Amino acid sequence: MTTVPRPAAELSADDARRIALRAQGFLGAPDRRAGVRGVLRGLGQVQLDTISVLARSHELIPYARLGAVGRTTVEDAYWTGSHAFEYWSHAACVLPVEEWPHFAFRRRAYRGRPHWGHELSAEAYDKVIAQLRAEGPRTATELGGAKNKGEWWDWSDAKIAVERALMYGEVVVVERRGWKRVYDLAERAIPQTLLHDDLDDTECVRRLVRQAGEALGVGTRADIADYHRLKGEQFDAVVEAAGLVPVTVAGWGKPAWADPAALASEPRGRHRTTLLSPFDSLIWERARTERIFGFTHRLEAYVPKQKRIHGYFAMPVLAGGRLVGRVDPAREGGTLVARQVTLDGPKAVPAVARALREAAEWVGCDAVRVERVDTPGLAKDLVAALG
Prior knowledge:
By secondary structure, the chain is an alpha+beta fold. The protein has helices at 13-23, 35-43, 57-66, 71-79, 104-111, 122-135, 157-168, 186-189, 201-216, 221-227, 232-242, 260-263, 286-293, 349-362, 379-386; strands at 9-11, 46-47, 84-88, 92-96, 138-139, 171-177, 180-185, 218-220, 245-249, 256-258, 274-275, 315-319, 322-332, 335-343, 367-370. Helices cover 37% and strands 19% of the residues. The strands form 4 sheets. Strands 11-12-13-14-15 form a 5-stranded mixed sheet, sandwiched between helices. Strand 3 (84-88) and strand 4 form a beta hairpin. Helix 6 (122-135) crosses helix 7 (157-168) and helix 10 (221-227) packs across helix 11 (232-242). The chain is globular.
């Protein structure tokens, strides 16, 4: 554990909450001119996931900050014009293309580790690279098939090869087509000014710690390191050079660091009211969410149905800088269905209704139906507020 120098500032819990909200794009007017790409650059990453209820998570994240931005606009912002690439960060993420050089340390590390039990000949690897070079962007299916005839992990040689090349940085994902990855050579897809791996590991990690601190505003060692899945000792080695400053936060009980720019002005402005993807970087880490918002949330999509408490894809509701409830949504034709709603008291009703109406309009639904409210006495009020 690093030795923590004297704190530069003492923050209240509310100070830290507002700093985090502003850093994540939920407090103050959004930069609509920068749009989706501005959100991506500010966050440093947007997590991908296969689950699609209202929309996929990488669509929900800019929506939560900007409002009803077109879903085609979101995809174009990520994949048109070499503005982003897909790689392993907090998880599988879309990343700003400017960060390509700073993941060189991870690409080098992948070259030196076992490959999940997948055997592959050099000839099979070279064949896929040659095919991409000759034919241009291709899915794994177009490269020869994604799977053999066994279970889902029984990848074909072509799939093993192209995924290995992806982790090495020789190949990048240039778009998602029907959720299938479309691969191309990095030498074509990444701007030449960025296509280099000459930064050493320390410089890469220093940049990612700094970026994580900026995106979070304020965080503990674990918060900041986990943002890009760094190790605690990697954080310790670079935090001082990264320029983050030590702070204390009332009630946190742990050392914390902040982006100096986040401390330079008081967080003010309009709060966003919205549904949040469970994969949103504001809330993806349970311990941080509990510490900042006093709100316990768990994604239950992978929990057996009979053991779920709040629903398959329960989405927390943000309003007034607080988490005031959650909604487990679904779509039935032109109706957004709130299968299960949890409300933090009567004052949460208008905010949850507003969030549901806006989400319904965004995904092209013209009606909202509430099936269950965990506090039955508030069900009638919610339905009335939905109008």
